[in-house]
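W.,

You were right to be curious about this one. When I first looked at the sequence I had no strong expectations either way, so I just let the prediction run and decided to look at it fresh. Below is the sequence, 217 residues in total, followed by the output.
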Amino acid sequence: MTKIREKQFKRNEGIFEGGSKLPLVEDFYSIQGEGFHTGKPAYFIRLGGCDIGCNWCDTKFAWNKDLHPLVDVDTIVDRAASFPARTVVVTGGEPFSYPLDRLCNSLSHRGIRMHVETSGVFPLSGEWDWISLSPKMHDLPLQEYYEEANELKVIVSNGDQFEWAESQALKMQCNCSLYLQPEWSSFNEIMPVIIEYVKSHPHWSISLQTHKYMDIP
């Protein structure tokens, strides 16, 4: 982690009271649209704040943490626990911009499974049942994520990115699920290329943003 990010994380620990309050963009009950758990119901918690700056990001509204209210973790967990599915997906923004131990502890005490989607640029915090790592070429994950992630999800917008995706796959633990996901705005151009690549490299699977086809959040 860079010194700038280290200072940012320590500052966030103070602002957000050690993770007892978090900048909440939105929380909602829906269906997981991507990766290994596609099609399964879950409660989504989207946290604000991200400095990675992917130009194709479809949640740019979540980048600025200061635009979103600080909400007590117990309030968030109470809402999540009111729905029948016992799985929460924490996403962003970049969730690990903040310490998430308290959130995980509170969810665990309610018998809720905890999934997280991350780029892996901040230190891992909390205990998770499923970690989905989506690395970015211009801002690589910390080493601990390669060792802990359950799935690797590489967003592909052009055919030059497959070699980089393979370099990331080589760093993962042997039982990690590997996914190539077409970048949405490049879907028509890149999808046929991904299909042919996966047919020739069957250690990969294809992940689609199925929630967009279902017209759900």
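Here's what jumped out at me. Helices lie at 3-15, 73-81, 101-109, 143-148, 162-169, 187-200, 210-214. And, maybe more interesting for your project: The radius of gyration is 17 Å.

Coffee later to discuss?

I.
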